Amino acid sequence: MDTEDDPLLQDAWLEEEDEDVAFSSRKRCEGALLCGRSPCRVRPLRVTLPVSGFWNIVGWVFTNPYCAGFILFLGCAIPAVLAVVMFLHYPALDIDISYNAFEIRNHESSQRFDALALALKSQFGSWGRNRRDLADFTSETLQRLIFEQLQQLHLNASHLGVSTRVKRSTPQGRMSSPKPHGHLNPGNRTSRTARGAPRWDYSSTYISANTQTHAHWRIELIFLARGDSENNIFTTERLVTIHEVERKIMDHPRFREFCWKPHEVLKDLPLGSYSYCSPPSSLMTYFFPTERGGKIYYDGMGQDLADIQGSLELAMTHPEFYWYVDEGLSAENMKSSLLRSEILFGAPLPNYYSVEDRWEEQRRKFQSFVITYVAMLAKQSTSKVQVLYGGTDLFDYEVRRTFNNDMLLAFISSSCIAVLVYILTSCSVFLSFFGIASIGLSCLVALFLYHVVFGIQYLGILNGVAAFVIVGIGVDDVFVFINTYRQATHLKDLRLRMIHTIQTAGKATFFTSLTTAAAYAANIFSQIPAVHDFGLFMSLIVSCCWVAVLFTMPAALGIWTLYVSPLESSCQTSCNQKCTKKSALHLAEDLFIASEATSRAGRETLPYLDDDIPLLSVEEEPVSLEMGDVPLVSVMPENLQLPAEKSNRGHLITRLQELLEQWVLWSAVKRRWVIVGLFLLVLLLSIFFASRLHPASRAPVLFRPDTNIQVLLDLKYNLSAEGISCITCSGLFQEKPHSLQNNIRTSLEKKKRGSGSPWGSKGSINLQGTVYISKSRSKGRPAVYRFSLNASVPAPWQMVSPGDGEVPSFQVYRVPFGNFTRKLTACVSTVGLLKQTSPRKWMMTTLSCDTKRGWKFDFSFYVAAKEQQRTRKLYFAQSHKPPYHGRVCAAPPGCLLSSSPDGPTKGILYVPSEKAPKAKLSATSGFNPCMNTGCGKPAVRPLVDTGAMVFVVFGIRGVNRTRHPDNHVIGDMGSVIYDDSFDLFKEIGNLCRLCKAIASNTELVKPGGAQCLPSGYSISSFLQMLHPECKNIPEPNLLPGQLSHGAVGVKDGKVQWISMAFESTTYKGKSSFQTYADYLKWETFLQQQLQLFPEGSALRHGFQTCEHWKQIFMEIIGVQSALYGLVLSLVICVAAVAVFTTHILLLLPVLLSILGVVCLVVTIMYWSGWEMGAVEAISLSILVGSSVDYCVHLVEGYLLAGENLPLHQAEDPGACRQWRTVEAVRHVGVAIVSSAVTTVIATVPLFFCIIAPFAKFGKIVALNTAVSILYTLTVSTALLSIMGPGTFTRSRTSCLKAVVGVLLAGLLGLCICLVLLKSGFKIPLPNGTAL
């Protein structure tokens, strides 16, 4: 039988009248066979089909080697030129890692907060989200205005003298960092108040000789207790670990070049060895004081730990103490799960005159220095203490490094896909290179359009997903072109073959790329700039990728066929000659020679190109199948089966083709009704479980949960506000040097009475002790060893003699000292022993004694975990045989009591050498500052902004952004619209009444959280003279030196606006959907209060705002926008597929498959414990576009198969449907499976990303791809074999009808919306509003 002229792959897009002439006689016989009517044989079609002028030119261009080479050159040159123009003549693209990119500037919550921020900026010259440092001159001006008002009211003139006697204090030190605000870090500060700062101006512009005296940078450390159920950070082992970390930071070789050197440290003599650098702002200043000249200095530079309880009691007398600990600590519960610390660095640096002198250069020097701490700090965590490190510069460095490392995984993904493409293109280096190159170069074009044409100046962090996903999407188009070209070997004319490839593959990939691009483009309508730009960027990349593949791959295929394919065949033939046997080589060569069939006209040669498989070939005799089954008409002739099986090249694709044929025969023919039934059952269950997916119940996770940056982000909700710094809260600034004599005398007196401190009258005692070892041995029983701190040896124990690994004694430390911080416990037991031989047994462990097994505590000591100077290495182990005793020895094999790996009861210890000098306890070891007279009462816990700060603003109407219609964060924020009718003194009574009402609402405001007035000058004492309601205004409970959040704006001698601040009870760690209820409570309560004011009062225009409200609406509206994007992409998909398939019975299987895929993916998300957050919603919005690809390709194959059916109606349409379905899988099966595999491989590296949205996005895309290809090969094939049109063929008339139907459906939907609007129904919009 001749099969080289397969009629199914003839030009499918010819004019209908030509098609009727060419195929009418041929289809009658063929259609009868296909539908089971007659056994006539198929003969090849020998008629040369006419081609229109346009397509003839296209075919000639891509098959002419010079034109094809020129197209490939342009395909490489144009993206390169555009990239050069973009990088050289336009501003560099910045990677935006900030929260700002997710802010919805057009939302009411953002407009309100931005209006307040702009008002602060215009009033004070700088602004920020954590703006707290309101200038003192504002309070002075407000006081002056109050006095003028009092004069007008003829109040007591004696108060006028007060204003003249009030001293103007120097403004408290504050600084404004030039670092751009809004980065994803808890150390982010645009403008920071230095609580308790020394009295000099940090922002001075004059030349100063005080080098490094301005605290301008910092490292923020957080120490978390872990390893036990109590998790109390105030234990000896943990405090020693924290002290060691802080000392390592100060021991950095370049620390003195950047450290902070305030004038106050000059009084601390021990700091002279550190060039009077300020020690860390930490509680270690209380726990590790130093002694010099009989005085105690609280600088944290001591070697020995003071009394923990007494140090805490002293520190708690200052309200600044609470900045360092968690919210659970109190005088009754002196335990904290964490401890904070700040390492401060000063400016100007050496060789600079002032802070402003070459500021960028100073900042770059500091950044290059501070990142050297990252490697060291990352290794400091122990089993008891987790060390977290942050600060603006360190955190930004960590985030950028994380982003860059995740992007490196994209190269791994691309490399794996390149190897897979090489295999699936039958090891063609030429086709693999241009396939991958077309995808990569298209990204440059998309980047040019994104940056230059659309004018977007930054790449959001979400855009990093494109590096992973686009390769998998682009390879889909590449495979379709290669697969279509190789299956068109029956077309002898290379030009006709190329035209067929461009028409068939071009149309199929156009619609799949259209739906995918539309799915991403649906996110363009999102109100969140980052999501908007992500949708735009991805839709541009998908579109540019399709255009690049459309031009590059046909040109590459043309050159490959003419020149490269023979070379590749000869190279592989020569390689096989060296690796295979001659018998196998003979059969393989027959298949390799067939790759040159395009240049031969003889019908006797094999018509397939390499591993090409004909789309249509039939058996010699038809086979009658039961239950309505049709013959599988894709079996190769017998004379070709053996070479195909024995060929090395294309063997994988051949096997995959055969597997897909068997699979679709089972799903589409034999078990189609079973599959449809299972699909409907799974669909119903999926809809049920998908509806149970609830909104997110916690704040979004941005990084992997166990990373330093994510733990810091989680902890920031439990700590004070980011705008609060505590550079002078440590004992160095809070405590004066104490005399040691009174404490020593008291201690000696107590010691005489049998109690007292562990240190003696001479100021120091021996830190070290000795552990003595003895043993007891009896016949037939192993020796049992005894550990003791006493040198005496009672009977029946005997001293151990040196030798054979025995250790008679060894030195230890009684308390943690230096690096000797590993605690070992000696446990004793009598279980399982004979009292007359060895009444007791001992063992050593790094944990507590196991009382359940009879072990009791005897004593403990400290050793080193690593080798130190003048140390001795010993081994300890516990026997795994009765009586399960322990032993210490000098070296194996004497200590091999157990073959198990090292653990709590086995390992290595380093003890001080016998020749090492004895360490002495200093005078500060165990020092209790509260021993004599006590330290006083603990301070009341102040407000440290752990709750969301809500502002109630009057005098501001909003923000004017008419000149900036875009929704992007970068750029000018607009201007403030002030309320000219606002008069502070006219409404002062109502304002005071409102302040009291809000402060008394304990459901909304924390006790002491009302900050109705700005700081300074005791303004509240004067306000009560203006109006009786202003008496007893709530006073905030702030830290010493901490400024109020309340603010006023003054211009031209008039108060323009006022904002009252309230620390709310809203916990910032809750999810956005839960916090939204708090927002509604605030909004409802404030509106109720405003309605009590007289009609026409300017106070009725007041509003409440909070930065946290902006953040919650990011996620809420982000989810809503993504769900709208899902619906929009579904509508676009339905319209595109309807136009593409042109038949309702072809559209229905696609829609059912998409619905099943989306519901099943959401169900798996629900089973996995996921919640519906912003990342999940964005991922869902692209599921429709990525799910439809494989179904559309399958329908395309179904339509191509229909081109060969007879025009008259077949007698058995069911058999024809099944045949067309099988042929559709044969045509596109390998291509869609290959593209699915590459997409999954492209997204697998995303699983290992540290950035959580990347990882979750990759999992969703991989899951969607796997489910989509499974449903395509099962559900879609079964539905097509059941309901697909048997004899339908696509025509221009059907396409026109489909377009009209889509337009009518859209018009009908618009009419329904108009009717609903007229009836009063509100249609919600993605931005949170409603029509």
From TrEMBL:
Membrane topology: Multi-pass membrane protein
GO cellular component terms given for this protein: cytoplasmic vesicle membrane; endoplasmic reticulum membrane; nuclear membrane
Residue intervals of the SSD domain: 454-559
InterPro entries in the cross-refs: DISP3, DUF7023, HMGCR/SNAP/NPC1-like_SSD, MMPL_dom, SSD
Location of region: Disordered: 166-196
Chief place of localization: membrane
Protein location: Cytoplasmic vesicle membrane; Endoplasmic reticulum membrane; Nucleus membrane
Protein's GO biological process: cell differentiation; cholesterol metabolic process
Transmembrane segments: 68-88, 407-424, 430-453, 460-482, 502-522, 534-560, 673-690, 1122-1140, 1146-1167, 1228-1254, 1260-1283, 1295-1317
Gene3D superfamilies, sorted: Multidrug efflux transporter AcrB transmembrane domain
Keyword field: Cholesterol metabolism, Cytoplasmic vesicle, Differentiation, Endoplasmic reticulum, Lipid metabolism, Membrane, Nucleus, Steroid metabolism, Sterol metabolism, Transmembrane, Transmembrane helix
Similarity remark: Belongs to the patched family.
Function as written in the Swiss-Prot or TrEMBL entry: Plays a role in neuronal proliferation and differentiation. Plays a role in the accumulation of cellular cholesterol. Involved in intracellular lipid droplet formation. May contribute to cholesterol homeostasis in neuronal cells.
PANTHER family reported for this sequence: PROTEIN DISPATCHED HOMOLOG 3
Designated name of the protein: Protein dispatched homolog 3
Gene expressing this chain: LOC101872000
